[in-house]
Amino acid sequence: MKIIDLVKWDAPNYADDIYAWRFPENELSTWTQLIVSESQEAVLLLGGQMDGPFTAGRHTLTTQNIPIISKLVGIPFNGKSPFTAEVWFVNKAIPLDVKWGTTDPIQLQDPKYGIMLPVRAFGQLGVQIDHTKKFLMKLVGVMHVFDREKLVSYFRGVILTRVKDMIGKMISQQGISILEISAHLNDISERLKEQLSVELSDFGLRLISFYVNSINTPEDDPAVEKLKASLAKRAEMNILGFNYQQERTFDTLQTAAGNEGGGSVMNSAMGLGMGVGIGVPMGQAVGHLASQINPNLIACPKCGHKISSNDTFCGNCGFLVQEPAQELVACSKCAAKAPKSAKFCPSCGNPMQIKCSGCQEELVPNAKFCPNCGLQQG
């Protein structure tokens, strides 16, 4: 039987991405030397119980510093009393490059543009083992090595659930567009760090840092391509100085020119277009063309929609363009014309609505008899 006198985490077995490592041998003598390096802690697992943690330095495993050994009944082997025990080393350093990311895009509706877009998120975090015993009991268990890959695998579900929930709230509740959410990465990172710190502490871990480095959409997604093309088109129209409706009107004129009988229309449009000054916006030119093609059209004062000059209300927004025509009557005193519903003449102030002196029925101007009671007026 091989009796171990020295236990340490050798450099070849030590790596920055390993959080916990179990010493491969478990037959230890009662005066085994345990060497713990800086940024490490060690725990002795004996008989299902943990003893430690042992901090940096040299430790002799005797009954003086490990009381649990005194409960064992050892058999002497060449003056040595061996016992079976496991030694775990824990890396207390702070690796800051633990990366995480969404495996599949999240489908969210953009509050600004109203379309469904796929959203991805990526970032990194830094954790430190804060409570060695709790970390070994709740996470490591019977594994020989616990590294960065296992850490990310254990907490990927928790991290992604919190990230998806936070991004969804920022977009839906605060109305932030998916294409503009990158401006809020710092705020999102701080909020997620507060939430995840509580959950990781239950496993003996302390969250040193948490960063959301990127929230984006796949460039090759059809919905993303269509939205970006529309935004580019809108930017182009803004630069040229006309809107979508005006562009469609201009396209209609071009289409009419290509149809039979449309040449005269387009020729008139081209002729009028030659007189447009360089500084006149394209939208004004298109509106001018439309009014020349159909002179009976006028622009709604509120929305600019083209309507007939005889329309009372705008067919696009319902705005009252002009007062409806009213029947006019002559004033009995000055003969000026006034609406039939007017109570007084707008020219001389003479009462327009006369009542019967007998029954008080309203009479039309210049009535000689009351149509209700027949009383002669005058």
* Beta strand %: 25-35%
Helix content: 25-40%
Mind telling me the CATH superfamily name of the domain at 98-218? Band 7 domain
CATH topology of the domain at 98-218: Tetrahydropterin Synthase, Chain A
Q: Based on CA inertia axes, which overall geometry fits? A: rod-shaped
Please tell me the CATH architecture of the domain at 98-218 by its name.
Answer: 2-Layer Sandwich
Largest beta-sheet characterization:
5 strands, antiparallel
Mean pLDDT: 74
Please give the alpha-carbon distance between the first and last residues.
Answer: 142 Å
Q: Please list the strands of the largest sheet in the order they lie side by side.
A: 5-4-8-2-12
Task: Give a brief outline of the structure.
The chain has a five-stranded antiparallel β-sheet. Strands 1, 3, 6 and 7 form a four-stranded mixed β-sheet that branches. Strands 9, 10, 11 and 13 form a four-stranded antiparallel β-sheet that branches. The protein is built from seven helices and 19 strands.
